[in-house]
Protein: Sigma-54-dependent Fis family transcriptional regulator
Amino acid sequence: MTKQQGKILVVDDDEIILLTAKMFLEQYFSEVNTLNIPKNIPDELDKQTYDVVLLDMNFRQGETSGKEGMKWLKEIISISPETSVLLMTAYGEVNLAVEAMKEGAADFIVKPWQNERLLATVQTALKLSDQQKQVRHLKSQQKILSSSADHQAGDIIGRSKAIKEAFTIINKVAKTDADVLILGENGTGKEVAARAIHRQSNRADQVFISVDLGSISETLFESELFGHKKGAFTDAKEDRTGRFEAASGGTLFLDEIGNLSLALQAKLLTVLQNRKIIKVGSNHPVEVDVRVICATNSNLYNMVSEGSFREDLLYRINTVECTIPPLRNRIEDIPLLTDHFLEIYCKKYNKSKLYLPEGVIKRLQKYSWPGNIRELQHAIERAVIMSDGNELQSRDFSFPGDSPKEEQVFDNYNLENLEAWAIKNAIKKHNGNISHAAKELGLSRGAMYRRMEKYGI
Ligand SMILES: Nc1ncnc2c1ncn2[C@@H]1O[C@H](COP(=O)(O)OP(=O)(O)OP(=O)(O)O)[C@@H](O)[C@H]1O
Structure:
């Protein structure tokens, strides 16, 4: 008979009860452990996660109040909320057991038990615990997904020779489970490419979770990626599922991998090698089944020679490399992309279809687009908002460096104008590298993006 997967813990001060329960339950469930001292419960739950705990109500000779059982019930629920607790009561203590169910126990078993009834009750409790885990998993996925929903994009648009080379790699690698490293300047569409790989993969009906490693602080890195146990640190008010676990079964996109410190690179490497995570505050490894796609705008090979990126991590993540070309090297794609964004923004701002004259397209193709497609997208959005009539004009676009307004900025010392000017020029100076520009301005990447959004850059 194949045993059902399930970890059961039986807690009772009576060794005979422990032995009988263990011998019986072990025939049906994959792991059954026992404890005769309830005060060891917290340590045991810290070591491993149990699906079901069978808990005695009284642990002292002659004691029938059930107070101790109630205390441990609350403790178990607070340490491990997804564990189903079954209380074991003596005949006549049924009222107490009902009281315990109000406190969160899944059910109760009257001692001496009938084996079939014990088996059925434990099986139901196991199912309940599985469902609770699924609900928690879905909730945390939902939370993470809704926070990244704004960044979702459609298919990769483009027909230039340069982007077709990237398509070839994407199509070849998608069906495999190989780890992929996507390289390219900021805003070229690395995340769009990662989503395209996911959509064509065997994991397409599972989640795609994206993490911007550049915006996670050093202290929160482990908790964000691997999760934490309640109480692991001051702000850990409840258990938290990390991105690796939430992405299990699907694809995890690690953006800006070049921004990780050497210490965090070592932690990430261990997880990528073992495919197991350990939550902060726990010492119990959890297996994760994720396909990892990394991206960066940094030159990781240079970083390896400078000693700021681990060579072993680079070779762990770059099984296949795919470079997304900058927009200035694929100007043939500009008409397609502008059409695409015009459609989106005309709809968004309730404008009737806008036309882009040939001359304006040529002007757009002459510009170097240091912020790549993201910059083009913002430029079109701003032009749609500014436009009158059904045609966009060159004046509806403002290109840093060629606008006479640039000089006027200093006429009135308006701080917002000055800030927008500084941001645009820092991006230009660093050839579209947002991280480097943000560093020069003394901003985090997150703060930089918020300001770019604000000023429509
Ligand atoms: N080929 C494309 N077709 C349509 N939209 C695109 C394309 N490539 C990029 N975009 C859009 O451009 C913006 C930037 O894309 P994305 O976030 O994928 O770039 P990135 O290279 O990952 O940027 P970063 O390096 O800053 O993280 C997004 O809004 C995305 O929808």
About this structure: The chain has three domains: 4-132, 152-325, 328-455.
